[in-house]
Amino acid sequence: MTITAAADGSALGNPGPAGWAWYVDDSSWAAGGWKHATNNQGELKAVLELFRATAHIDDDLLVLCDSQYVINSVTKWMKGWKAKGWRKGDGKPVMNLDLLKEIDEAIAGRRYRFEWVKGHVGHPLNEAADERARGAAEAFQRGRPAPAGPGFAGAAAVAEPVVGARAAASVGQSGTGAPTLTSGRVTERAAAYSHDELFSFDDLRDDIGEDHRDLTDPHGPDAIRSTSELHRVMLSLSAEEHRRLVQRAAARGVTIEEYLRGQI
Hints:
Layout: E1 2-11, E2 16-25, E3 28-37, H1 39-53, E4 60-65, H2 68-83, H3 97-106, E5 112-116, H4 124-142, E6 167-173, E7 179-185, H5 188-191, E8 199-203, E9 211-213, E10 224-226, E11 231-237, H6 239-251, H7 256-262
Parallel strand pairs: 1-4, 4-5
Antiparallel strand pairs: 1-2, 2-3, 6-7, 6-11, 8-11, 9-10
Helix pairs in contact: 1-3, 6-7
């Protein structure tokens, strides 16, 4: 079986607010961006995230791309650059080195091929990726959250470990009153929850004083809430779910906790 996906980047100003996206269909796509980057960086990032999102799938991958720079970099030039210590024929350093090294690692052992498609001529997959990449760039330009997309369909169901071996994300409160998020193995208390009970809520009245500043309050961080209204949330995640959560938070330029709060 072959997975066919389009990867595209967008930059407003080039460099400027930038976005990236890959697209298979409406149930399998992802996007993100930066406040300041180039179009080529967006194109490379889209390819990188596509390979990462499909790393667990043992299928061929056909990447549709409208950037000759990206296609030639990955399929023609990268091997020679590596042999020269990641330098071009004229001895100058290769541009976008970090992204290229990550792509080189991500494609190792994969079965793939690239196909050039002309951009902005109505190719359905390319247009869908372009629309999402530009949408991410515009979101960063306006200082708004960028839609991250659902990721690759079925990714979270692959090799999901039992609850006791899952990664856990625990949202609590530090002694300074600032929210904290820790990750690691699930505690014995969390391991008792069934797969259907991914969220648990415990009163914090035994853990903190009578008054506490609640950063989730819509009226702002200075609002004082009674401890009876405060809860600790524990979210049990598979390794793949945790990876996707980290990626989506990074794509929006926020912390994991800020991303989770934004979903409430």
